[in-house]
Amino acid sequence: DIQMTQSPSSLSASVGDRVTITCRASQGISNSLAWYQQKPGKAPKLLLYAASRLESGVPSRFSGSGSGTDYTLTISSLQPEDFATYYCQQYYSTPQTFGQGTKLEIK
Amino acid sequence: QITLKESGPTLVKPTQTLTLTCTFSGFSLSTSGVGVGWIRQPPGKALEWLALIYWNDDKRYSPSLKSRLTITKDTSKNQVVLTMTNMDPVDTATYYCAHSRRFLAPEPFDYWGQGTLVTVSS
């Protein structure tokens, strides 16, 4: 299995801050990397796929980058609705695997 | 508009078999490239990928759970069924089904059901 390691596991930030979450795969995944946002009691929501492609309807303050084994999710200016838990997922190989999550909290 | 909804028991006893049904609309599992997967999330923990079935009946399973899982589709009913045998309290989780696609390569889950909480307890 490909292991996905996210960092940090939690993060405190303020509205307007720029934040970056990283995800490292245990082997190369050829940009087959997605980012999801999950709010309490809700299903995950797809934000980005193919490492950097924004899903339709997702605000442009979300962006992704990376290649090989290392990927990042950046939120350029945090909004109140962005406080949630974020997961990366590799869909390069079976079993598809998720990171352990990054909880983004209000400072 | 694509929607998915999970259904099944909310409580199962240890050693029992869990059967979950995902009923969907807005797409067909007979359309080339379409897939439906199952993902679970124990309370307060991370997401875990379980299984995925594609339009051509290609089935993929988590190796760690493969011996306990079966995924099937009923195209006429727009349903995907997941069975998990020998349930244990550690299988307590919210179970989600989700829509995916595969053309040149697999794609992520772009539409999710609301999830259903399954508790395993005697």
Task: Give a verbal description of the structure.
The complex is a heterodimer of chains A (107) and B (122). Chain A is built from no helices and eleven strands. Chain A is mainly beta. In chain A, strands 2, 4, 5, 6, 9, 10 and 11 form a seven-stranded mixed sheet that branches. A four-stranded antiparallel sheet of chain A has the order 1-3-8-7, with no helix packed on it. The mean pLDDT of chain A is 97. Helix content of chain B is 0%, strand content 50%. Chain B is globular, with a radius of gyration of 14 Å. Chain B starts with a strand and ends with a strand. At the A-B interface, β5 and β10 of A face β5 and β9 of B.
Layout of SSEs?
The complex is a heterodimer of chains A (107) and B (122).
Chain A: E1 4-7, E2 10-13, E3 19-25, E4 33-38, E5 45-49, E6 53-54, E7 62-67, E8 70-75, E9 85-90, E10 97-98, E11 102-106
Parallel strand pairs in A: 2-11
Antiparallel strand pairs in A: 1-3, 3-8, 4-5, 4-9, 5-6, 7-8, 9-10, 9-11
Chain B: E1 3-7, E2 11-12, E3 18-25, E4 34-41, E5 48-54, E6 59-61, E7 69-74, E8 79-84, E9 93-101, E10 111-112, E11 116-120
Parallel strand pairs in B: 2-11
Antiparallel strand pairs in B: 1-3, 3-8, 4-5, 4-9, 5-6, 7-8, 9-10, 9-11
Short description:
With 107 residues, chain A is mostly beta strands. Chain A is built from no helices and 11 strands. The model of chain A has no long low-confidence stretch (mean pLDDT 97).
